[in-house]
Amino acid sequence: MSPFGSKKNRSLPVRVSTFDSELEFDLEPRASGQDLFDLVCRTIGLRESWYFGLQYVDTRSNVSWLKMDKKVKDQRIELHANNNFYIFSFYAKYFPENVSEELIQEITQHLFFLQVKQSILSMDIYCRPEASVLLASYAVHVQYGPYDYESYKDGMLAGGELLPKGVTDQYQMTPEMWEERIKTWYMDHEPMTRDEVEMEYLKIAQDLDMYGVNYFPITNKNKTKLWLGVTAVGLNIYDERDKLTPKTTFQWNEIRHVSFDDKKFTIRLVDAKVSNFIFYSQDLHINKMILDLCKGNHDLYMRRRKPDTMEIQQMKAQAKEEKQRRQIERKKFIREKKLREKAEHERYELEKRLEHLQDEMRMASDALRRSEETKELYFEKSRVNEEQMQLTECKANHFKTEMDRLRERQMKIEREKHDLEKKIRDADFYVHQLTVENDKREAETEKLKKELICAKMAEREATARLLNFLNSGRKSSTDSLLTASTVSNAVNNASSIAAISTPSLTTSSSTNDMVTVGGADLTITHPYHLVMGDNSSGISDDFEPKEFILTGNEMEQITNEMESNHLEYLRKTKNQVQNQLQTLRSEIAPHKIEENQSNFDILSEAQIKAGENKYSTLKKLKSGSTKARVAFFEEL
After folding, report:
1. Is residue 68 marked as binding?
2. pLDDT at 595
3. N or C: which end of the chain has fewer CB within 10 A?
């Protein structure tokens, strides 16, 4: 009978949540876990069901996986109080060793992509900041398709959750700065389909240390607290403070049997000479989960190393055919897109050329109009220049006449100056003669003064003699009177000579441009120069003035060519991606807030400095013997 109940008897209402949808079913009370699981797989179109399981919260608030062989109602599932539904989550329970080789269906890849992405964003899987940016660019590619500069708008990525909170809190960077770095990676991605982008995302994510690891707290015989990591390839043992780097590891091909008795777990190894690997867990529920995960991962590990079943071969063949068909359609689409882009580009170039020619015609028309205006301007300028030349010639003649007049005036002034200099020289000579004559007259005056004094003395003597003579006799009176008259005339002549005065002559001249001629001032000015220039202007204008039919061999050839091109692209870009990650790490390093670093960040930095990664660490751990690894675990 069908496990689904009728509408009249809905005893088991079930709601199953996947990462991109919610499903609701009504089950009959007798429906088993396998019935519900198969129903979900058929509904979403999933055939690779062995990786997945249904997770729920039991009545004791423990997270559990639905058992396939038991009835749903018998598994202590907590009924949701608000809507009376049994709530399940459809999760990947087991992880592949290599996603590119094992995952076949697109729906499988998509579900893994959504779960791993959510685990990274919720920080259940630690991811370095630079790798987070790279993965975010692939997530954007999945959401929006290949980068298109026409449809992309700034701030378009700011609304979504693209980076773990631990990354954004660790750096002092704005959302715009993070968006710019994500956009840079996004632009560099090769145009790919959604499933190809999701596969690239998963191939990067599977290299993370915590990818595909289920952690459980355990202790060894020394009661040292450790972490047990159940993975697709084996069991890893981690230090309590370090979930990134395992202390030791045991692969599934080394393990024969796993069992537990209450809190004690016993791992029997293939090598009979090696003692059992024993650890302890404090919770019975956790012990059951460990055993269930060990059994499932061990089965898948051994299954991978066997030839594929007919079902898997059929799935791979169908997936390959579907992939080839899509590649051919994609190549055809790309070819048509390129032709369309080429046609649009040619149309754009023709429109641009037409616009350019129209601009050239407009420029030529403007240039022609300007040339006509320039021609008229030149005619006007020519007329003005002729008038200016005539005016200049008139001015030149006037200036020449004026210069001749000034030259004649200057020559006249020079002659007058020469005459004045001659007159000055004559005056100086006359003054000199007058001075000499004045000196002579002064000498004569002195001589006359002396003679006058002598005459006075003679007069006194004569007077005395006269008096003596008068006293002596009247007889000689007539002779005395004659003598007195002679003396008086001599005195009068001396007085006239003493009263003579000599006039002084003062002359002045100048050797400067200012010359005094006959009481009038004449200023000689320098003739001025006439400067004439020709201001001409010129204007120079530059003007420049289907359907495709492919055979089977061609399809196979195209497919092989695309695969080889893709592998070549991956090989070339691998080192480039590492270099870009290193560059991005260096770019954001100055913005790091050291106190916001988590323990995982510190451990990851130590790994980088030591040059270690997930695979090199596991390879180093596996190099030792099983016995040595068991002994190392017991001594922790």
Report:
1. yes
2. 86
3. N
Please answer whether residues 96 and 103 qualify as being in contact, where contact means their C-beta atoms are separated by less than 8 angstroms: yes
Q: What is the pLDDT, as a whole number, of residue 584?
A: 85
pLDDT value at residue 49: 93
CA pair distance 133, 137, nearest whole angstrom:
6
- 1.10.1760.20, 3.40.50.12780, 3.30.420.40, 1.20.80.10: CATH of 106-206: 1.20.80.10
Element (H, E) at 26: strand 22-27
Note the helical H segments in 206-309: 284-304
| Distance in angstroms (rounded) separating the CA atoms of residues 340 and 55 | 49
The answer to whether 227 and 240 are in contact (CB under 8 A) is yes
Cα separation, 585 vs 595, in Å, equals: 18
Cα angle vertex 592, ends 586, 593, to 5°?
165
pLDDT higher than 50, residue 510? no
Q: Where in the chain is the domain with CATH 1.20.80.10?
A: 106-206
Please choose, from the candidates 153, 138, 151, the residue with its C-alpha nearest in 3D space to the C-alpha of residue 194: 138
Report helix angle 129-144 to 194-205, nearest 10.
170
Six token digits for residue 123: 């920080």
Amino acid type, 524:
I
- In this structure, the number of other CB atoms found within 10 A of the CB of residue 502 comes to 11
Here the tokens at position 541 are 């204008």
* pLDDT tops 80 at residue 530: no
For the record, the structure tokens of 422 come out as 């001659």
pLDDT given at position 215: 96
Percent of the chain at pLDDT > 70 equals 82
Q: In the predicted model, is pLDDT for residue 22 greater than 50?
A: yes
Instruction: Report the amino acid identity of residue 125.
Output: I
The answer to whether residues 364 and 498 touch, using CB atoms and an 8 Å cutoff, is: no
Query: Of 250, 207, 114, 167, whose CA–CA distance to 600 is shortest?
Result: 167
Model pTM above 0.70: no
For the chain, where do the domains classified as CATH 3.10.20.90 start and end? Answer: 12-92
332 is in an annotated binding site: no
pLDDT tens per residue across span 557-590: 655 665 666 566 556 666 677 777 888 888 888 8
Sequence-distant contacts of 629-633: CB under 8 A, at least 24 apart: 629/248, 629/249, 629/250, 630/269, 630/274, 630/275, 630/277, 632/247, 632/248, 633/220, 633/237, 633/247, 633/248, 633/277, 633/279
Q: What is the mean pLDDT of the chain?
A: 81
> Is 70 among the annotated ligand-binding positions?
yes
For residues 475 and 461, give the distance between their C-alpha atoms in angstroms, rounded to a whole number.
20
Is a pLDDT exceeding 80 seen at residue 485? no
Distance from C-alpha of 230 to C-alpha of 294, rounded to nearest angstrom: 7
Q: What is the CATH number of domain 12-92?
A: 3.10.20.90
User: 283 pLDDT exceeds 90?
Assistant: no
Closest CA to 54 of 28, 92, 4: 92
The answer to whether 422 is a known ligand-binding residue is: no
Alpha-helical runs (H) found in 106-174: 106-121, 129-144, 165-170
Q: Binding site annotation covers 263? A: no
